[in-house]
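Homework help board

Subject: predicted structure for assignment chain

Our instructor gave us this sequence and asked us to write out the predicted structure in token form, then describe one feature. I got the tokens but I'm not sure how to describe them. Can anyone check?
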Amino acid sequence: MKTARFVLKIVGAALSLAAVVCLIIAFWDKMTSCLSGKQEQDDYDDDALYQ
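My token output:
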């Protein structure tokens, strides 16, 4: 029984770590722009969109 609890703790820790890594990858561009102090810039010409 102790072995099963230990294995479940290891699996839970691994899944938690994987979730944190996925969150970091998903929001990497936003985190780097906040840390560098740059503001997002539009990639589109707004005047051309509304013609």
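Reply (TA_rk): Your tokens look well-formed. For the description, you could write something like this. The chain is about 75% helix and 0% strand. That's the kind of observation they're looking for.
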